[in-house]
Amino acid sequence: MGVVGGRGGGPAHATIADVSELVQRYLDQILREHAGDTAGKLADYIPELAAVDPDDFAISVSSSDGYVYETGDTATQFTIQSVSKPFTYALAMDRLGEAVVDAHIGVEPSGEAFNEISVDRTTRRPKNPMINAGAIAAVALVPGTGDERFENIRGFYSGCAGRELDVDEEVYRSEEATGSRNRAIAYMLDSFGVLDADPDEVLDVYFRQCSLTVTSTDLARMAATLARGGLNPLTGRQVTTAEVVRRTLSVMTTCGMYDAAGDWVSAVGMPAKSGVGGGIAAVLPGQLGIGVYSPLLDDKGNSVRGVKVCRSLSQELGLHFLTVSRESRSTIRAVYDVDDDIRVYEVHGDLLFAGAEQVLRSIDRDSADFAAVILDVSRLDSVNDPARAMLLGLSAQLGGEGKAGFLVDPDRRVIPAEHPAADLCFPDVDDAVAAARAWLHSAPAP
Ligand code: GLN
To answer: Quick count: other Cβ atoms within 10 Å of Cβ 4?
Structure first.
């Protein structure tokens, strides 16, 4: 942020809630759009998962500065299951470094089901850490024995979520009682010399890790921690390094959605991980973390509505990570005041959804004492449709509060000439200031 002149932000009042309403309404609408979709079925390999409410549905989005939008059953706890895998992999990387982890677990997509009993034919290592074989090998790499190893894992996830996570004891007991397939995998890995720890001890930790409970908001926060290169935006704690996160996001991109990974990258374009508990965590590096919960699964074990929500969010908000832009985020370059009641915000760079959301939120937070706000977008390199819609929403928002918003937009890239608000648009700051002064003089005293 550039220079902030004049008075500091006034008392926080209702306006923060008002601006976030733009995004909130949008999320509510996405939830409604997909709520009627009852395709898929509950996981039924253990009774606890078969007994959850199939209608439960929650979406949470965390911005990269930790502001969370949520809609639906966001207080509902569910088991993290395989969404845990990238986090244990990250922890092993964090503690042992890439070379040691790579000697035990590959990074190639397997194109196989998550619980396939398989290893790479030549190296005899699990093909990647996102399938059960690789995830069990990752658990074995986490330092500590028994409880210590599990507490390291729980502590790491909690650091990413920004709160203490707990185990669902019933799910854990059921996982333990029915885990023959995972036992087969662990013993196979042991026989190939991939596990440097007792297979039963490792399995016990793996079952407990899968049974940790989260909400969609926890997943959004965990994803946002990855989006910030390992810094939890809620707590400000650096949980792991940017290098570890880069590697983790790489395998989430290529292997996170199991055998649907190619389709996912094409349509959604965000590193993500799903779990049979119904959760999906998706990461837009540098910008957002998304958590979705809906327990009805497709035949690959991915949440049906979760996948659809991520598709909608990506397409409608322009979140695909391979959308080419010069800067992934635009910034407020300068903030300055004219007279006592006009505040000017100058934005530059490429304005995408997440950047526009943050610009609007800072305007709302800091401009309480100002009757008129001028947004200078003349130095923007580009602006996409979702960001434009957000900026158009701001002028209506300010109007609703008895304030006025003016735009410096010489090329009319934000407000087209035929738009009803086009007369709020000026070729340079001087003209906008003149219009703001004229409006202030004509407006009745508040
Ligand atoms: N506990 C499950 C298992 O190991 C987790 C699988 C998943 O979520 N895909 O089989």
So the answer is: 16
pLDDT the model gives residue 107: 95
Catalytic-residue membership of 276: yes
Residue 397: per-residue pLDDT: 78
Active site residue 82: yes
Question: Residue 247, Cβ neighbours under 10 Å: how many?
Answer: 19
- Two structure tokens written together for 262: 């190619």
Classified as helix, coil or strand, 4 is strand
Tell me the per-residue pLDDT of 14-54, one tens digit each, with 9 for 90 and over. Answer: 344 555 787 898 999 999 999 999 999 999 999 999 999 99
**89 noted as active-site residue:** no
306-316 per-position pLDDT tens digit: 999 999 999 98
Q: Which residues pair with 70 in a beta bridge?
A: 60
- Does 140 sit in the ligand 1 pocket, CB within 6 Å? no
Please, which residues have CB within 8 angstroms of residue 428's CB and are 6 or more apart in sequence?
378, 408, 410
Is 81 near ligand 1, meaning CB less than 6 Å away? yes
Q: Which helix (H) or strand (E) holds 242?
A: helix 242-255
Task: Specify whether 345 is catalytic.
Answer: no
CA 62 to chain centroid, in Å, comes to 6
Judged against a pLDDT cut of 90, whether residue 173 lies above it is answered with yes
pLDDT of residue 2: 25
The residue to mutate among 114, 178, 307, having the most atoms of ligand 1 within 8 angstroms of its beta carbon, is 114
- First-to-last alpha carbon distance for the chain, in angstroms, is 30
**How many CA atoms, within 13 angstroms, populate the side-chain half-sphere of residue 441?**
6
Cα 43 to ligand 1 centroid, rounded to whole Å: 10
